[in-house]
Design goal:
Blueprint lengths: L5 E7 L16 E2 L2 E2 H10 L6 E6 L4 H8 L12 E2 L4 H10 L8 E6 L7 H10 L5 E7 L4 E4 L5 E5 L5 E10 H10 L8 H7 L4 E5 L11 H15 L1 E16 L2 E4 L2 E4 L2 E3 L7 H13 L5 H4 L13 H13 L3 E10 L9 H12 L6 E6 L5 H4 L3 E13 L3
Parallel strand pairs: 1-4, 1-6, 4-5, 7-11, 16-17
Antiparallel strand pairs: 2-3, 6-10, 7-10, 8-9, 12-15, 12-18, 13-14, 16-18
Helix pairs in contact: 3-5, 5-6, 8-10
This protein binds cytidine-5'-triphosphate and ligand LQXTBERG.
């Protein structure tokens, strides 16, 4: 069994009663994407997280599958398990569900905090080197009042040592598992409180003001505003890719992930999918990551006959590492035959699935060269692509 040193447990079994109508908040859309998909992706993309377990309500499996979409294929994503009546129950059941994996560390996170960022996750993980637990939190800046039974101020609470707890909350796995088992029957609102009950040492690390929990209906409006602001903090880069493969005897060509019956095949070291190669280069170009040959040298025998989705997935993952977003891709296939039109929709669907973006963000076009040049003579096929990538703005 491959050892999963650090597992993220994302609790998503709540009903979201305070968020009002519209179903459980983790399955609602924020700028066209489900809350749970945004949350899970942050952990799936984190280089120090080895596995992600989502805890769902027993009635929600269909909604979960639909919301996660292409993320379901992520190798780090574990099968979801069913949660309990309270958040604390869901966390405990989540921890019990990963006992067999024997992780060293676990990060517990609310599905309802979709703006969690890589740096906050890293701070929590790193703090576990010197403490039993560590939570993301923010110092309190407002003056804090305690009210009396009549709704009047009883006292002003000194705020110097007060922090607002967020998630993720990270722990040494065996310690928090034991603490949660011992805390059954007590009502505790976060996992740090469970750890405190057990006498564990829990550190505070800076969270992020953006890492809000969607709780009330109005929080969704604030979240949309935040996403708009985040979009404004992005810069847009465009990359270009070009690829050519010669035809040879065969019975099918592979283009943009779709096998098209033909009286020839494309010659190449890999499966010779020129469309995917051009698109891979376009994405790599936009993020300044060289070209396909830098990452997958043709001299390396391991890539012989390789399916080209491997190359495109690498480009996609690099974009994620840069905290970027693929905004749009446009592929043009240049050939007399085969006819591309009948296969365009399937090509768009295949590329969208690999890149984990919506189909309208992918375009596949085709043209001939009016029988001129090598493509016109049917000696080979060319592909051009552009990719537009949003990246966090630099100075
Ligand atoms: N029985 C529960 C209750 C809550 N949660 C999860 O714990 C996180 C934080 O809880 P909260 O914001 O209170 O969510 P809900 O319980 O869904 O909200 P409400 O209390 O308004 O119903 C959420 O991601 C929620 O899905 C859970 O997994 N199991
Ligand atoms: C764990 C938590 O996110 C810390 O702020 C929070 O306590 C969970 O939400 P709830 O509304 O208290 O259930």
């Amino acid at each position: 069994m491959v050892k999963l040193n650090t597992i993220a447990v994302i609790v998503a079994a709540g009903r979201g009663a305070r968020a009002g109508a519209g179903g459980p908040k983790q399955y609602r859309q924020l700028s066209g994407r489900a809350v749970i998909a945004r949350t899970a992706e942050a952990f799936l993309a984190h280089p120090d997280i080895d596995g992600v377990r989502v805890i769902i309500h027993r009635d929600d499996r269909e909604e979960y599958d639909a919301a996660m979409g292409p993320l379901l294929k992520d190798k780090k994503l574990m099968e979801p398990v069913t949660g309990g009546a309270e958040r604390q129950d869901s966390v405990r059941l989540g921890l019990e569900s990963i006992v067999a994996e024997e992780p060293m560390r676990v990060l517990i996170h609310d599905a309802a905090r979709p703006f969690i960022d890589e740096a906050t996750i890293t701070r929590v993980i790193n703090a576990l080197d010197t403490a039993d637990g560590a939570i993301a939190a923010l110092p309190v800046h407002d003056t804090i009042k305690r009210e009396d039974a009549d709704g009047k101020i009883e006292t002003t609470v000194p705020r110097d040592a007060l922090w607002r707890a967020q998630t993720p909350q990270g722990f040494h796995f065996d310690k928090i598992l034991a603490a949660h088992r011992a805390a059954q029957g007590k009502v505790l609102t976060d996992d740090a409180a469970v750890a405190e009950e057990a006498g564990l040492v829990v550190a505070l690390v800076p969270g992020s003001p953006d890492n809000m929990k969607l709780t009330q209906a109005e929080d969704f409006g604030m979240a949309e505003t935040l996403l708009g602001r985040k979009d404004n903090q992005m810069e847009y880069r465009t990359g270009h890719g070009y690829d050519v493969h010669a035809f040879e005897d065969g019975n099918a060509v592979m283009l943009c992930g779709v096998e098209i019956p033909h009286d020839k095949k494309l010659k190449g070291h890999s499966d010779a999918d020129a469309g995917m190669h051009a698109l891979t280069d376009a994405i790599l170009g936009a993020i300044g990551e060289g070209d396909i040959g830098d990452h997958f040298p043709p001299s390396d025998p391991q890539w012989k006959g390789a399916p080209s989705h491997v190359f495109l997935e690498k480009a996609r993952d690099l974009v994620a590492q840069y905290q970027g977003k693929i905004v749009h891709c446009d592929v043009t296939l240049i050939c007399e035959t085969p006819k591309i039109g009948p296969h365009r929709d399937r090509m768009r669907a295949a590329l969208a699935l690999i890149l984990d973006i919506d189909e309208p963000r992918i375009s596949v076009k085709a043209t001939t060269t009016e029988k001129l040049g090598f493509t016109g003579r049917g000696e080979g096929l060319a592909a051009m692509a552009t990719a537009t990538i949003a990246l966090p703005a630099t100075e």
